[in-house]
Amino acid sequence: MSGHSKWSKIKRAKGASDVKRSASFSKLANAIIVAAKNGGGNPDSNFSLKMAMDKARVGLMPKDNIERAIKRGTGELGGAVVEEALYEAIGPDGTGILIEAATDNKNRTTPDIKNTLNKFNAKFASAGAVAYQFNKLGKIVVDLTNHDREEVELMAIDAGSEDFAEYDEDLAIFTKPTELDQVRKSLEAQGLVIKEVGLSWEPKDLITIENKDVADKLMNLVETLEELDDVTAVHINFDIHEKLLD
Predict the structure, then answer these.
(1) Which tops the pLDDT comparison, 188 or 8?
(2) CATH numbers and ranges of domains, the chain
(3) Cβ(109)–Cβ(85) below 8 Å
């Protein structure tokens, strides 16, 4: 990987869109359903499920709702099947956008995403037209509060990590997808606090946006996509020039 978006880190630090997204019980429930479906209903052995449940609790989702979502994921309860979907899009200035969704109705989700893209002069791309610009990697965010960054990086290298990036006051550690859980367990065994874990699409190269109108349009596009109930993550291959962020 060649770089990591400064704008994305700033947006994460402010946490504005996370606050908006946390209000959506359907988004939180879908994340739990997918995690339980992929890794089982026990949060002690399914870290992705544990993280999804923690987010649901922070979002004040009732305990009964969380338990129902887990049972839907494991098949113990009926209901519409929640599926994961990946959408590829081209934004202003040829920027690449990958949109991950968890939905029980693609006939609702696809038009919602398409309408949002259209509002900001973006459009769907054919399969593979954007994804090749990204690497799918395991991503672990480690709390550095009581640890030296270089010390943590050495731990991560020994555990099998491939790359690092500053992540607000934390450290993002990237791994091969197949080695994500192995690295996570190694870091936890050494006393590190894991704040996030999962698979992520990371850009191979970043396009720097220097035009304010284009930057505003792209920032609004990403934040609007993230607010859609069925969207679980938005990955970008652009960065906003520092002079615009200032």
Answers:
(1) 188
(2) 6-74 (1.10.10.200), 83-132+205-245 (3.30.70.980), 133-203 (3.30.70.980)
(3) yes
Contacts of 157 (CB under 8 A, 6+ apart): none
Instruction: Enter the pTM of the model.
Output: 0.84
Interval 167-192: pLDDT, tens: 778 899 999 998 998 899 999 999 99
37-40 long-range contacts, CB within 8 A, separation 24+: 37/73, 37/74, 37/75, 37/82, 40/74
CA distances from 76 to 37, 62, 67, 71, 83 (A): 11, 19, 11, 5, 16
